[in-house]
Amino acid sequence: MIHAVLADDEVLARQKLRQLLRSETEIEIVGESATATETIDLVRATKPELLFLDIQMPGMDGFDILTEISSGETMPPPCVIFTTAYDQYALRAFEIHAIDYLLKPFTRERLASSVERARKQILLNQQPAQNGSAGVARSPYANRLVFKSRGRIIFLPVSDIRRISAEENYVRICTQSETHLLRETMAHLEERLDPEMFLRVHRSSIVNLQHVKEVRTESDGEYAVVLINGDKLSMSRSYRSRINEWITHS
Q1: Is 82 within 8 Å of 61 (Cβ atoms)?
Q2: How many whole angstroms from its chain centre is CA 79?
């Protein structure tokens, strides 16, 4: 059973969420709160595994609430699903590893998807570590990227990414069906991606190793990385040791 707290200053919003959660048999609502102070006190008292949290709360915003909950606590903070009418906080929400970001009004199906994602993370957190501690740390790497593109908020699983290329002050993320241009640096993006899955092969290129077909030597002696879809990327000398190390350990 997953114990959950509903935090929203709107009574009707809490009622609607409670109603939608009735079909989620694994969820047990242990309390509701309408202000920042109530939320902090309730979470500390009930120690839920999951917190449904509105962004705009009387007293402080949802991010400040999470900071306060985490301060001085020996127990791990709950997994968080934000529920809000504002889309401008989505990027910040995922930077703090929120499970999901639900824009009101959301459907039962959308909520169910979030709950399933939370369930998997909670089970992962509860697995005993090899040293006998109570749980395992979350991966420091992103399993999806969240960004605005063409007026939309995109939730992109990193497994969908084939390659990433630098374009002046931007990066272009390429999937099978589309590309997205983000104002981001290659260095920062590289830090967020699992090095077991992504490899930087050039100052301007990162590839998803799952989509690499071959690494070959060109007629001029230079290396090239060829993807399954036929895309060919240059590999600079300074990054060759990375591909050699990956080949050795794969």
Answers
A1: no
A2: 12
Q: Which two tokens stand for residue 201?
A: 């092969």
In the block, tokens 């908020």 appear at: 153
Strand partners, 212: 227
One of 3.30.1640.10, 1.20.1270.20, 3.40.50.2300, 3.40.50.970 is the CATH number of 2-134, namely: 3.40.50.2300
Domain 145-249 grouped into CATH 2.40.50.1020: yes
pLDDT of 16 > 80? The answer is yes
* pTM of the model as a whole: 0.62
The structural domains of the chain, with segments of one domain joined by +, span 2-134, 145-249
* Burial class of residue 192 (count of CB atoms within 10 Å of its CB; 0-12, 13-18, 19+): middle
Tally of CB atoms within 10 A around 250:
7
Per-residue pLDDT tens for 25-64?
999 999 999 999 999 999 999 999 999 999 999 989 999 9
| CA pseudo-torsion sign 114, 127, 98, 1 | positive
